């Protein structure tokens, strides 16, 4: 186990480079299972724990996977299994995205039910509804879902009750080898959906309309490997933009695509942050007081739920009262109690959090309850008085490449320490942090 130690009070300046998007690379790796000929080469693949996990899932299915220097190769010509077991799916919900590709290519798949997580119950009914509409038979039991098709899946008209990102991706991947045309209505419009569609089309698929609410997929006989570069991570970019703004800094976020960050940029500008986008990135300058603003999370192109907690950290520094309403997930305010441990003033009322900005934050021992909560606590630590210890680092490692190194490159003071599991019989309440790894993050994470 490890913790991040953040010493607050540093203004961030300079330039930071965004890595490839976690939420693009995961479905793209899953889609590689569709390649019956040739090898897929995925570049700008970020070295994240989630990427290692999905690579293992593919290997367990018989695909040959290599990963070096942010390049993944997948040879899925000979698959040997159609089962994604519990150990992988519980580790990472996105493992469930192998269902569509396996079902359509192999005619059968058995996958552990993903279950809920810290941010909500996260059902998969819309994925299953889509597969059933295409003729799959679904059965559930003993914590697993089995899906089988009698011959090929058939194209269908499918209306999603919620514009689910995962369901759109899974159904799109199933439809590419189905017989006939699938029309997916109320589809999610996220940039990651477009990236996946581009990848599938490169493999020989016929997907049209990705990025709009209606996607048309004409089934083809076979797909092949292709080379594809993953888009930059808009949430990682937004997190560094928030880091610049919260510290009153001046930072160029290289690789940030401003078109993907519309609502984040608008809200920061409303707060009084200067944002200067160009074709290679976004410059963020925060040289004045920050205004309170209200935020409501929504599916793309609305304000992203994955930036909610980081923006809440920024609002802690603003003058006045802000209301943040979470409409995408029903339980995504677990960071509030942690912020309050740092002397923040936030109250949760149903789906909204009311933030009284301006309280002087103080360093404390806090825990990341999910990936973005972890990033948000680090942001708060950047301006807190004294030292903040952020536990639950495994959540952060799922989605941020070299987070401490990148922030330290801008002038922050963050390092990772290993932490011994507290012994049950120990009476002392002293910190369990052992300063054995206090070297400033020179070590690169080991890649599988
Ligand atoms: C790996 C990945 O890309 N993860 C992202 C993806 O997650 P994920 O694809 O899991 O999120 P969804 O878009 O599916 O979920 C959005 C909402 O729809 C509900 N829902 C979803 C599916 C379903 O069958 N039935 C149903 O009711 C969920 O409970 C949630 O309330 O989109 C989320 C919403 O932008 C992001 O926070 C995640 O970072
Ligand atoms: C919720 C997130 O991811 P996942 O869907 O992989 O849990 C996230 O990236 O913030």
Summarize the structure.
Helices cover 30% and strands 26% of the residues. The chain is of the alpha/beta class and 448 residues long.
Written description of the protein model:
It is a single chain. With 448 residues, the chain is α/β, with parallel strands linked by helices. It folds into 2 domains: 224 residues, UDP-n-acetylglucosamine1-carboxyvinyl-transferase, Chain, CATH 3.65.10.10; 208 residues, Alpha-beta prism (UDP-n-acetylglucosamine1-carboxyvinyl-transferase, Chain). The strands form 7 sheets. The protein has a 5-stranded mixed beta sheet. A 4-stranded mixed beta sheet has the order 2-17-19-18. Strands 5-6-4-16 form a 4-stranded mixed beta sheet, covered by helices on one side. The structure holds uridine-diphosphate-N-acetylglucosamine and phosphoenolpyruvate. The site of phosphoenolpyruvate has 7 residues, from helix 12.
Task: Give the topology.
Elements: E1 2-7, E2 13-17, H1 22-31, E3 35-37, E4 39-43, H2 49-60, E5 64-68, E6 71-75, E7 83-84, H3 86-91, H4 99-106, E8 108-112, H5 125-133, E9 136-141, E10 144-149, E11 157-159, H6 165-175, E12 181-185, H7 191-202, E13 206-208, E14 214-218, E15 223-224, E16 227-229, H8 234-246, E17 250-254, H9 262-271, E18 274-278, E19 281-285, E20 295-296, H10 308-315, E21 321-325, H11 335-341, E22 345-349, E23 352-356, E24 365-367, H12 371-383, E25 387-391, H13 393-399, H14 403-409, E26 414-419, E27 433-434
Parallel strand pairs: 2-17, 3-15, 4-16, 7-8, 11-12, 20-21, 24-25
Antiparallel strand pairs: 1-25, 1-26, 4-6, 5-6, 8-10, 9-10, 12-14, 13-14, 17-19, 18-19, 21-23, 22-23, 26-27
Helix pairs in contact: 1-2, 1-7, 4-6, 5-6, 6-7, 8-10, 8-12, 10-12, 12-13
Bound molecules: uridine-diphosphate-N-acetylglucosamine (UD1) and phosphoenolpyruvate.
Phosphoenolpyruvate (PEP) binds near residues 94, 119, 306 and 371.
């Amino acid at each position: 186990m490890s913790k991040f130690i953040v010493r607050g009070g540093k203004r961030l300046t300079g330039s930071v480079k965004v890595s490839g998007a976690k939420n693009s690379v995961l479905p793209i790796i899953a889609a590689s299972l569709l390649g019956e000929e040739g090898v897929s080469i995925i570049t700008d693949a970020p070295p994240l724990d989630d990427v290692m996990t999905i690579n293992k899932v593919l290997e367990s299915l018989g695909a040959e996977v290599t990963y070096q220097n942010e390049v993944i190769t997948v040879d899925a010509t000979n698959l040997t299994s159609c089962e994604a077991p519990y150990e992988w799916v519980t580790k990472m919900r996105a493992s469930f995205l192998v269902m569509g590709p396996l079902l359509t290519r192999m005619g059968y798949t058995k996958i552990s039910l993903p279950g809920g997580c810290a941010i909500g119950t996260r059902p998969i009914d819309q994925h299953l509804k889509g597969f059933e509409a295409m003729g799959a038979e679904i059965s559930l039991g003993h914590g697993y879902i089995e899906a089988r098709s009698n011959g090929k899946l058939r194209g269908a008209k499918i209306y999603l009750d919620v514009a689910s990102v995962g369901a759109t991706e899974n159904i799109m991947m199933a439809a590419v080898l189905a017989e006939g045309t699938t029309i997916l209505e109320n589809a999610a419009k996220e940039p990651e959906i477009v990236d996946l569609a581009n990848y599938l089309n490169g493999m020989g698929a016929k997907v049209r309309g990705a990025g709009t609410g209606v996607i048309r997929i004409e089934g083809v006989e076979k797909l092949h490997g292709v080379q594809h570069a993953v888009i930059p991570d808009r949430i990682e970019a937004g997190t560094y933009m928030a880091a610049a703004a919260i510290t009153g800094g001046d930072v160029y976020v290289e690789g940030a695509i401003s078109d993907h960050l519309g609502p984040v940029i608008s809200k920061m500008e409303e707060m009084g942050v200067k944002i200067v986008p160009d074709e290679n990135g976004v410059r963020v300058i925060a040289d004045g007081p920050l205004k309170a603003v209200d935020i409501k999370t929504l599916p793309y192109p609305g304000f992203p739920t994955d930036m909610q907690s980081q923006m809440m950290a920024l609002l802690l520094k603003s003058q006045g009262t802000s209301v943040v309403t979470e409409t995408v997930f029903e339980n995504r305010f677990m960071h509030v109690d942690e912020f309050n441990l740092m002397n923040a003033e936030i109250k949760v009322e149903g789906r909204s959090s009311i933030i009284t900005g301006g309280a002087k934050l103080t360093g404390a021992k806090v825990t990341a309850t999910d990936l973005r909560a972890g990033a948000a606590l680090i942001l708060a630590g950047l301006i807190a008085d004294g030292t903040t210890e952020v536990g639950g680092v495994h959540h952060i490692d799922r989605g941020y490449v070299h987070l401490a190194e990148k922030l330290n490159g801008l002038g922050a003071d963050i390092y990772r320490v290993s932490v011994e599991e507290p012994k049950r019989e120990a009476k002392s309440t002293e910190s369990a942090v052992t300063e054995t790894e206090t070297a400033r993050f020179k070590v690169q994470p080991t890649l599988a």
